[in-house]
Amino acid sequence: MTTSNNFHARPPLGLPTGSIRALLTLLILAIVVHEVVLQRPVTVIWNETLVIALAYYFSYRRFVALPAEVITRLEADGTLPRERNPLFLPRLSVRFVILLVIGGLAAYLYREQRLFEPQVVTMFGTMLCYLVGVLVRGVTAWWTKGEKSLATHVWEDLKAVAVVLTVAATACLYFLTGPEMVPHWLETATVGLVLFYFGSR
Hints:
The protein has 2 domains: 1-115; 132-201. Helices cover 67% and strands 0% of the residues. It has helices at 19-37, 44-59, 68-76, 93-111, 118-144, 150-177, 184-200. Helix 6 packs antiparallel against helix 7. It is globular and about 60 Å long.
């Protein structure tokens, strides 16, 4: 049974898998960029939504650990739905557009001497932590050729310990003293570390 006649394998609107996520991410990014450029305050909900959209878009991938030639054969005989690129665009182009827009916004704000406004620092800080994690994951996968070694396991364990201890320390302060006693730098570092961890996974 091929993908074309397999109703259950049909993505939303019949578009390639990931197209709706791509459109939503680009639209949310457009709203945030528009508001920042016009010097309007970006509400917390839009900042959070942007980070969630980026996190989901950059981390979603098919959970099939098979060699490429096996996947190609399974797609050809219809056993596995064929994954086309989102919005029918070349591979990785949506991710490239997202990064280009974020980089362009950073350059614009730097030129306007607005790059270090509190709202901008918070927005870019959260996005950057996650994207650095994604970059680290990609470099690690390329360097190790996808194989797990002792060094890879040690690296994963160190990341896990660091993020758990940081979040646990922040949580303890919240539980014992209340949010007013938690330093802003610790909140920022905690959120950044969590986003980096999720990106690097």
